[in-house]
Amino acid sequence: MRLLGNAVYVENRKLSRSPVLWGMLVFLLFVTGIRSGGADWNEHLGSMTFLFASVFGLMGFGTITAWTFGREYTDRTVKDLLALPVSRTTLVIAKAVVIAFWWLVAALTIFAFSLLIGLFIGVPGFSWPIIAHQFVELLLIAVFHLLLCSPIALLASISRGYLVPIAYAFTTLMVALTAGPTALGPYLPWSIPALHLSMSGLTLFPLGTASYVILILVFELGAFGTISWWKRADQR
């Protein structure tokens, strides 16, 4: 447990000092700001949550994940990392924990930013139940995209960089935007977060069980694939 804590500490220092993280956060705040406003608070916060369900999640989160795993190869630090007396599985888990932490920080920061903008511009119809509902939806969407980012970590490891996984994230965004409204949408993992959000007015989990199982299967494929690759990294 101590080794995991130390690994998380080191990975957090790497990511927290990266211009990629802060540049992405500034970009997300900027987009949130220009998309703010609406007839009421439900529309105002719903617009922000939809951005998380689509562009923010697939591209923003995907870029951070790709950089966290891919930079070890582009900076040529992977050999030093693998030589440490730390389990390869521990290294992967540490990176995943740090990514999840900063995505939660980003989500909370943008949600608070949206609240401040709404109060500042005087969006009508302020209601605590609406705020609570949108907050829960935002957290669920964040979890969904956490699950979807494990294949990006795997691609970054296999391709030994971050260009391929970023291209993958962009491609999946295009697929989600074009095929999401079709009958295949509930079965395409990248479309599920946005479809969940668009149908969540009636129930907390509006899609069929198969959609959420697909998200878990995608996560397991990427997570176990990444761990397996790192365990054999010095044989590649």
TrEMBL record:
Signal peptide location: none
Keyword Transmembrane belongs to the record: yes
Lineage, top ranks: Bacteria, Bacillati, Bacillota, Bacilli, Bacillales
Keywords: Membrane, Transmembrane, Transmembrane helix
Matching Pfam families: ABC2_membrane_4
The keyword Repeat belongs to this UniProt entry's keyword annotation: no
Organism per entry: Saccharibacillus brassicae
Highest taxon, organism lineage: Bacteria
Name used for this protein in its record: ABC transporter permease subunit
Regions crossing the membrane: 20-38, 50-70, 91-123, 135-155, 162-184, 204-230
